[in-house]
Each structure stands twice: as C-alpha cells, then as structure tokens.
Design a protein that fits this description.
This protein is α/β, with parallel strands linked by helices and about 375 residues long. It is built from 13 helices and 13 strands. The chain folds into 2 domains: about 140 residues, Glycerate kinase, domain 1 (Rossmann fold, 3-Layer(aba) Sandwich), CATH 3.40.50.10350; about 220 residues, Glycerate kinase, domain 2 (Alpha-Beta Complex). The strands form 3 sheets. A 6-stranded mixed beta sheet has the order 3-4-5-6-9-10. The chain has a 5-stranded parallel beta sheet with strand order 2-1-11-12-13, sandwiched between helices. Strands 7-8 form a two-stranded antiparallel sheet. Helix 1 packs across helix 13 and helix 9 packs across helix 11.
Length: about 375
C-alpha cells in the first residue's frame, strides 16, 4: 500500500518535510511495509523556496527594507532566468515584533526590491509567493520599489506604507521599470479574497496584523479609493486581489501578473500527480486548520487534486479551529488533531514533531482496524 504525504509546514515549529517525515515514522511504527511518498508543499507563504528548490539553484541574498522600513537581509531563488520570491522573506509578519504590529506602518517595499533585483539579474520568469504578510498597503510599497510614485493633493510623493493610502490622490507610473514588459509573473496566492468589502483583506486579515476595528474600516475605504483612482475597480474584485493586504491587486493591476492559487501552482510544479496515480490514501495538514482553510490553503488544495484520483484525504493539524465542517464538502475525509492533551501553545509547538508522529501512529491503527472490519 502506498500513501502520498503532502503537508504544509507547521509555522514556527517544523518544515513541511519534517512534518511529512514524522507522519511516516508514525505509520511505520504500525506497519513498516507501507510506502510513504513524501512531498514538501507550500501555499505561497513561507516555505515556497524550500518546496521548489533544486540542487543547482542559486540563493541570492541582498539587503532590502523590512516591513518597518528597517534594513535587513532577504533572499530569492534563481534558476537560469527564473526567480522564486517569498514576500514573507522581506515583508512577513514574523519580522515584526508583536508590540509593533500595525498595518498602518508596514510596507511591501522590500518585496519590490527583491523583485527589481531579480529582474535586473536577468530573470524574466518570476514566481512570487505572497503569503504570510505583515502588510495592508495595497502593494504600493512594492510598486514604489519598481518606480511608481503615489502623490498627495500637493503632488508630494508619499512614503509607501499603510497609512499613506489615506492621502493618495494621484498615481504616477511613468518611472516603472521597463523590465516588467518582458517578464512573465505568476503569483502564488494563499487566499482568494478580493481587495475590499466584508471578505476583503482589511476585514479578514487586518486584525491578525494589529488592526483595530476602526483601522479595518478606514483601510478598506482607502484601498477602494486606490482602485478607483487607478481605474482598476474590476481588478479589485478578483480572487486573490486581497492576498497579502492587497499585494495581489498591485501585482495583477500594475505589473501584469497572473494570480493563481498558490497550492495549485505548487502541486503542478512539483509533479505530485504522478504519485497520486498509484496511491491508496493522501495525508495532508497544516499547523492550524479552520473554516478559512477553504480559501486556498494547503489541505483543501491537496484534497481538490486528490479528488481527481478518487482518493480519500486525511488532514492533520495542531489546532482545529471553528468552521471545519465545510472542509468535508471540499474533499477532506477526516481531520485529526496532533495534540493529545490540553497544553500551552508554546509546548505544543516545541513538541510538534513528536505529537505529529504519535497522531500518525494512532491514526494508522484505526485504518488497519477498519480494514479488518471489512
């Protein structure tokens, strides 16, 4: 019997491959004959480069502006004329101390600097993962790095952070890098939210980045104003336009990028379909699973592909949140918690691999019992 294992990383505690290996160990404690075909996967957030990297790829390190405009080192992957960029490496939420998290003050400038460097470094094929952001700036930071200018009523160039959205009255694209004209840009979105509204980036993800309810209301209006000023109200409605606080909107609307489901893009690039052809079961998972996972996260993406092969799918997660009932309508057959007792989050994260292995061990006992019942 063969099992295909394709899980996301457990953020802050284990990489995608470490999780897959822990699941394999748990299964083999029950039955060493089971073949486990392991794939690291990502939905466009942290881990995208690790997932797609190959032996001879180059990791390019440069200095960029972090989410609070601080100088920091970031990197992208280069393979011939292709670059893989993680916006989380330059503009990610973990880069901002909890006490300083405020989307009015954060910027995607560093992600734009990574992108510009890759273009100037001869890359014409760009894959940009935009999950895990600390930002809600509508992508004006990234666009500023590429040469755009955002002006207030006095024609003054604004510093491109979240609060600058309030004062934008004019968008000047005359200085945008001409290298964009010859670039094919694919954006791996980890969510499918539009830019604005009750399901927009400000309302759904703003609070995670430090936004108050007043900020959510304000920023939603400011982002709508940006789409109106730039005559891109239609693009604001696209699935994924609200990813990374509107970075999807900026990349599609101003850079000609194609917005794609991150997990679907990754699964295609790594060729997991070949494994599914002769598998009997798929195991996936992420650190926390809840109703929002239906909006483009790894477990549902894996389940959607597995459905094409009529395969059952088990999802493992450290934390099972509310709204998971809907996930059973999107291809998941079972959801298993890796935690085996009430414990603080820090302890669960520190023991994540041990707990995941034990959960796989228990789960496989159930599977073998079910086979005997038949």
């Amino acid at each position: 019997m063969k099992v295909t294992i394709a899980t996301d990383s457990f953020k802050g505690s284990a990489t995608s491959m470490e999780v897959a290996e822990a699941i394999e160990r748990g299964i083999h404690r029950v039955n060493k004959e089971i073949i486990c075909d392991k794939y690291p996967v990502a939905d466009g957030g942290e881990g995208l480069i690790d997932t797609l990297s190959q032996e001879n790829d180059e990791i390019v390190n440069i200095e960029v502006h972090g989410p609070l405009f601080e100088k920091r080192n970031a990197y992208y992957l280069k393979r011939d004329n292709m670059a893989v960029i993680e916006m989380a490496a330059a503009s990610g939420l973990p880069l901002v101390p909890e006490k300083k998290r405020n989307p009015l003050n954060t910027t995607t400038l560093g992600t734009g600097e990574l992108m510009l460097h890759a273009l100037e470094n001869g890359c014409t094929e760009l894959i940009i993962g935009i999950g895990g952001s600390a930002t809600n700036d509508g992508g004006i930071g990234l666009l500023s790095a590429l040469g755009a200018k955002f002006l207030n009523e006095n024609k003054k160039v604004l510093t491109p952070d979240g609060k600058a959205l309030k004062d934008i009255r004019e968008v000047d694209l005359s200085g945008m890098s001409s290298l964009l004209n010859n670039a094919n840009i694919r954006v791996a979105c980890d969510v499918d939210n539009p830019l604005c509204g009750e399901n927009g980036c400000s309302a759904i993800y703003g609070p995670q980045k430090g936004a108050t309810q007043q900020m959510v209301s304000d920023m939603d209006g400011w982002l709508y104003n940006l789409s109106k000023i730039s005559n891109k109200e239609d693009i604001a409605q696209l699935a994924g336009a609200g990813a990374a606080g509107g970075l999807g909107f900026a990349l599609n609307g101003f850079c000609g990028a194609e917005l794609e489901s991150g997990i679907t893009l990754v699964l295609d690039l790594i060729g997991i379909g070949e494994s599914l052809k002769d598998s009997s079961l798929v195991i996936t998972g992420e650190g926390k699973i809840d109703g929002q996972s239906v909006r483009g996260k790894v477990p549902v993406g894996v389940a959607s592909l597995a459905a094409k092969y009529n395969l059952p799918v088990i999802a493992m997660a450290g934390d099972i949140g509310s709204g998971t009932e809907v996930l059973y309508e999107h291809g998941l057959s079972a959801i298993v918690s890796t935690t085996n007792a009430a414990m603080p989050l820090a302890k669960a994260m520190a023991r994540s691999l041990e707990l995941t292995e034990d959960a796989a061990f228990r789960t496989w006992h159930l599977i073998e019992m079910a086979q005997k019942i038949k």
